[in-house]
Amino acid sequence: MVNVQEQKVLLEVQNLKQYFSVKREKLLQPKLSVKAVDDISFTLCEGETLSIVGESGCGKSTTGRAILRLDEPTAGKVVYNGKNILDLSKKDLRTLRGELQVIFQDPFASLNPRQTIQQILSEAMSIQNSVQKELRKDRMRELMHLVGLPEEALSRHPHEFSGGQRQRIGIARALAVNPKLIICDEAVSALDVSIQAQILNLLKRLQRQLNLTFLFISHDLSVVRHISDRVMVMYLGKVVEIAPKHALFNQPTHPYTRALLSSIPVPNPKVQKERILLSGDVPSPINPPSGCRFHTRCPFATELCSSKEPETVEVQNGHHVACHYANDFFSA
Amino acid sequence: MSKEVILEVKNLQTHFITKRGTSKAVDGIDFILHKGETLGIVGESGCGKSITSLSLLRLIPSPPGKIAGGEVLFKGRNLVELPESEMRKLRGNEISMIFQEPMTSLNPVLPVGEQIAEAIRLHQNLNKKEAAKKAVEMLRLVGIPSPEKRAKQEPFQLSGGMRQRVMIAMALSCNPEVLIADEPTTALDVTIQAQILRLMKELQERLGMGVILITHDLGVVAETCDKVAVMYAGNIVEHATTETLYETPLHPYTQGLLASLPKIDEDQEELYTIEGNVPSAFNMPPGCRFASRCPLATNLCREQKPELIEHESGSKVRCWVYSNKWREQEVVM
Fold first, then answer.
1. Which of A75, B99, B220, B304 has a CA that sits 20 to 30 A from residue B41's CA?
2. Has the keyword ATP-binding been applied to this entry (chain B) (predicted)?
3. pLDDT, tens only, A212-261
4. Which one of B157, B163, B189 would you mutate to disrupt binding with A, by most A Cβ within 10 Å of its Cβ?
């Protein structure tokens, strides 16, 4: 378990906003935008795994992309090792990306089908100049060993591998440039359970061996519980709850977190879960509800919720909840 | 069991004939579905679960696919041998199907109400107006708010959960006796998935149909199914009631699958993994298909294919460990 207080802060996100403008439907309509991420802040400590969970469209992937400046954020600060990433020049950003890597959901879509694994890895190394030319061959063999693939794999193409093996290649490529922080965007979501378990074990082992920091984006709460130290729950572009893993799973406080946790089907027919069934769908992020964004689906919503946006309350050490009634729910 | 049998599958085999050889995607499976019951078919990608469901309604693209043998008995008729015109009357009427991605099964440029009405008019003797009215009724039944308005909208104007409700409304519009649901909630978020599963359960209780649920999600199975068939590489390897399967899984594959799931209520340092990969469908080993990944495998497993045998717990399992041969083998050793 990582104790947040004692750890060195590696990444600090402050008031990050990411709006995407949408086409007007009528000529004189005011300019509209999708508020995919709307004013979120959090910190990430060295060596820990922070997970972002939430349903489609809550802004979890957008947050990951904004941190890497794969999309240019609208406002806010992303401070990495004392430097604001959003102020960096293109050149400095490229250098820095060696330390910040990303693994995507579909490894086949993110590997060049016409390159061999060797070419894929050496391209990454040469862009970042992370390994001297003469040593690259050795480093590649070492990487293959690290992610559990045979050395012969280096001369083969991505299509010759199964889904799980491709994800291992994706991980090897991320590691090729000696990163400190890896953003895993739904990295195991496309895999079968038996393969998913292999990749999760691999990620955990690599984290221990190489002292990596993970920002783990996923919609699968069982996976998140397995891999995280801390968990952040997002809803419609806002952070609703952030807490150490055990606090979040044992004492979920925000009504949305509770509903989310209660919706997971449990692989045990004897467990009859008391289910908080939410009605309706997630509202549109173009025109999000006033006040608390969850009030339209919240079973406990009052008038206050629809008029005033809730402040974030710390209900316990490191456990933050954005709800007007956080303290009542926490003790309840 | 005193309940009425509505669907019986005997030794169903579906093969794909390609340049690389014959792939036995479904290689001799048997099961029985009773009225009002939910049967889950689980397995990982490529195990043949979706091909099984498509074979039941003869929706396999042919060529290259072919139902090579076996019977699908529905109300005394063998669907494998039924003429195509009879089959058409049956699909969507007595047996319906829902797929994973509603957007690819709905016509993108036709209002959803019309699409449902089209299915109704195909099978029932109703005029246009009556069918449109029935379509709205069906949308109301599946819990879509203001169904009159929604019926006039096109699929892209609906959310994912709403579209899946439309698919369910369409599938149920002719009161089918069997509903085949192929990964119906896989593309949906958990809170929406919970809504859809609850809805399917309610409708099943009300309409008394038998449901075949195809999924890779062992959590969904535990919550919705009465019986489960676990498939691996084209075979059923274990067939049991849901409770027995989760309490005493017999087949090493089932055990491995359950053990490799991350638990929501428990801390684990390392997850159990099933080493290796599924054998290629073109080149199946002669013995047990799981032998190359099985921690218990012996020469017997590698050389001879086990049959699906009955275990004392009432489950059926395709594994040598539970046979007399296994014990004899130990004596020799």
1. B304
2. yes
3. 999 999 988 999 999 999 999 999 999 999 999 999 999 999 999 999 99
4. B189
